[in-house]
């Protein structure tokens, strides 16, 4: 199987390609059908932004899982475990534990007190125009980071399937992914996007389960055997199963590990495309149910990444994985080909095609969710309430959201074409760091701290946003090494790949400091209203 | 709906019926200090306590438990590398324990919320709606 790439590039992959294209086209056709159907029922702004608040807790739990289990999880984590063994597993754990923050502190009060976006909650008690501007800006930035990660995953997949000769095709497919996601969002709104995510979640769980069963079956259902084989094949022996292979080199990389860990656990509850999902159910109780379902589904999925990652290490081998993609993004599809019977076999071709189609579906559903979140925030927060000062009709606001979706789609297509050397999981971790630094402190302070002020919110959002993005720009992710975004340049004075350990505490600190400085006091009446509404659901939309 | 949205920040004297993100709800009489009164009531105090006294300590606990895992992975290699059986080491079991505790905390919170938070929230809400 180490010849996968050569075989594919030599043109022996005609059948794979036809099959993959067929399966993928079927998925796109079905989901576009759903989208058109959902679009017919989308009339009001509430339909477009929140799917008419008509989903059940279970449906939304599936959709949340579909929104959350991105290319980073499926391709990136499997790759990180396959290449770095145990250290890749940290992503799975952090991504899951993070849901408890959403469950215990954010989901229910947000559902009770907000309407369409994260900023709705802040606008209850703070000066509406400045906080909407700030929250809208950070929503768009976080979503674009996240979109970039998905596009990188899409690019890696195309390169695997089409070989080195596929550079032109890679661009076209990224353009295609961008176009389809814009269609989902503009035609189907939240209702269409939610159904796409539900379909995708079912497909992804089924595909992952299939590979997991096939992998475990090869090792007589003995996890210890699987780990042993992975350790042997990795050439690193026991160290492959121990922490430290990727992050244990020196003090800096250990600190980077802590930074990443913080960003993962605190980021989820600040991700705009996750937060707006809580508005698609009728009550706070249904929001709680949906998070519980999501925790169950996502937890099961991440447990299976153990089989996926170590299975790829044991059966495909890191050499073949790196040959296909330097960051390991193609470990999962390569593993599918291997457990299906190996390169050249029909079984291998079919499984590779199925898993690749599932991965494309995954990417498509997640980018649609991100596009919806950022265009909704642009239209509802920035356009309707800041620029037009509330003088828009519902129709104009939805039209603005659709135009924004087209523009954001264009931006992500352009970014996706240029960035492809980075690991998708590491990129998503950056989005988590920005979300945890810029969004989470303000959301928590607004809901639970009576002395929080507009100035505190602005300091926290802009401080968290600027510090995290600045530190990323001057980190090894962007320059100074061959895997960076700009490998030829060298301005990486910040040593950590993830800024969380600096920018998250800074976001919290600035929110606290900005509120405590004199001249502006919190309004107890407005906090009373927000607190009562958020805990009781009184007057909820 | 949106055309009626309030443009500027509502002044402190805004009635509760005028919400910063939505139109005035018909049927709610203007009662400027209504939310302050509800917030100060014993009933609401109990609701707040039922949520905070459970969610806050538990959040601190699971974040600490998770950070312990991260720090041990990082700085206590010897302990985490201890082999328990076959190729299963402490690090793997610790990681799987994080999954288990996440599932348990989610279940525990939901049980607590259904028993102690939901009934109180319903009661306060019903009382407020009855007063409209």
Automatic annotation (TrEMBL), chain A:
Location relative to the cell: Cell membrane
Pfam family, one: SSF
GO cellular component, one term: plasma membrane
UniProt-listed GO biological process terms: plasma membrane acetate transport
Domain of life where this protein originates: Bacteria
InterPro entries listed in its UniProt record: Na/Glc_symporter_sf, Na/solute_symporter, Sodium:Solute_Symporter
Keywords recorded for this protein, A-Z: Cell membrane, Membrane, Symport, Transmembrane, Transmembrane helix, Transport
UniProt topology in membrane: Multi-pass membrane protein
Principal location: membrane
GO molecular function ontology, one term from the record: symporter activity
Membrane-traversing stretches: 20-39, 60-83, 89-107, 139-163, 169-186, 198-216, 257-279, 291-316, 349-378, 399-419, 425-447, 459-479, 499-517
Similarity field: Belongs to the sodium:solute symporter (SSF) (TC 2.A.21) family.
Protein name, entry field: Acetate permease
Organism placement in taxonomy: Bacteria, Bacillati, Actinomycetota, Actinomycetes, Kitasatosporales
């Amino acid at each position: 199987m180490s010849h996968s790439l050569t075989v594919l590039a030599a043109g022996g992959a005609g059948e794979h390609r036809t099959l993959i294209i067929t399966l993928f086209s079927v998925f796109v056709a079905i989901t576009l059908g759903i989208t058109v159907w959902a679009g017919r029922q989308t009339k009001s702004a509430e339909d477009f932004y929140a799917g008419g608040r008509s989903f059940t807790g279970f449906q939304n739990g599936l959709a949340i899982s579909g929104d959350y289990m991105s290319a980073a999880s499926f391709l990136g984590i499997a790759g990180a475990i396959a290449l770095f063994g145990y250290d890749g597993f940290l992503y799975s754990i952090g991504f899951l534990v993070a849901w408890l923050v959403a469950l215990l502190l954010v989901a229910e009060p947000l559902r009770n007190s907000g309407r369409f976006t994260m900023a709705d909650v802040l606008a209850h008690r703070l000066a509406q125009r400045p906080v909407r501007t700030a929250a809208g800006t950070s929503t768009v930035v976080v979503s674009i980071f996240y979109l970039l990660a998905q596009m990188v995953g899409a690019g890696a997949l195309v390169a695997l399937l089409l070989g080195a000769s596929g550079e032109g095709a890679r661009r076209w497919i990224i353009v295609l992914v961008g176009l389809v996601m814009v269609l989902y969002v503009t035609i189907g709104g939240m209702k269409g996007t939610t159904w796409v995510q539900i379909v995708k979640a079912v497909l992804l769980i089924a595909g992952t389960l299939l590979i997991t069963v096939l992998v475990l079956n090869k090792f007589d259902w003995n996890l210890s055997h699987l780990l042993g084989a992975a350790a042997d094949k990795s050439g690193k022996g026991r160290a492959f199963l121990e922490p430290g292979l990727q992050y244990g080199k020196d003090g800096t990389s250990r600190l980077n590990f802590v930074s990443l860990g913080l960003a993962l656990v605190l980021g989820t509850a600040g991700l705009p495309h996750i937060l707006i999902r809580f508005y698609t159910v009728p009550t706070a109780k249904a929001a709680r149910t949906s998070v519980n379902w999501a925790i169950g589904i996502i937890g099961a999925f991440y447990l299976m990444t153990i089989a996926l990652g170590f299975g790829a290490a044991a059966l495909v081998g890191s050499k073949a994985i790196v040959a296909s993609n330097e960051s390991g993004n193609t470990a999962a599809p390569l593993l599918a080909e291997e457990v299906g019977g190996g390169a050249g076999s029909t079984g291998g071709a079919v499984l590779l095609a199925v898993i690749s189609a599932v991965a494309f579906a995954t990417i498509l559903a997640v980018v649609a969710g991100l596009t919806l979140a950022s265009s909704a925030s642009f239209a509802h927060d920035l356009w309707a309430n800041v620029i037009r000062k509330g003088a828009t009709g519902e129709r104009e606001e939805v039209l603005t959201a659709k135009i924004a979706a087209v523009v954001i789609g264009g931006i992500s297509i352009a970014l996706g074409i240029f960035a492809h050397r980075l690991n998708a999981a590491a990129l998503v971790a950056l989005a988590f760091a920005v979300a945890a630094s810029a969004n989470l402190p303000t959301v928590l302070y607004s809901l639970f701290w009576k002395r929080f002020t507009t100035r505190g919110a602005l300091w926290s959002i802009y401080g968290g946003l600027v510090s995290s993005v600045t530190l990323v720009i001057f980190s090894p992710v962007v320059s100074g090494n061959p895997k960076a975004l700009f490998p030829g340049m060298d301005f990486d004075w910040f040593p950590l790949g993830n800024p969380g350990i600096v920018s998250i505490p800074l976001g919290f600190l600035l929110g606290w400091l900005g509120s405590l400085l004199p001249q502006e006091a919190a309004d107890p009446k407005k906090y009373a209203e927000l607190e009562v509404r958020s805990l009781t659901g009184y007057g909820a939309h | 709906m949106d055309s009626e949205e309030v443009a500027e920040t509502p002044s402190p004297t805004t009635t509760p019926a005028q919400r910063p993100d939505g139109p005035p709800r018909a049927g709610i009489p203007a009662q400027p200090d209504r939310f302050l009164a509800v917030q100060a009531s014993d009933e609401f105090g109990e609701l707040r306590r039922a949520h905070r006294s459970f969610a806050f300590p538990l959040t601190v606990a699971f974040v600490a438990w998770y950070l312990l895992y991260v720090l041990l992975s990082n700085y206590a290699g010897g302990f985490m590398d201890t082999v328990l059986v076959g190729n299963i080491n402490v690090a793997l079991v610790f990681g799987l324990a994080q999954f288990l505790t996440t599932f348990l905390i989610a279940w525990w919170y939901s049980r607590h919320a259904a028993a102690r938070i939901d009934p109180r929230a319903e009661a306060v809400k019903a009382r407020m709606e009855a007063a409209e």
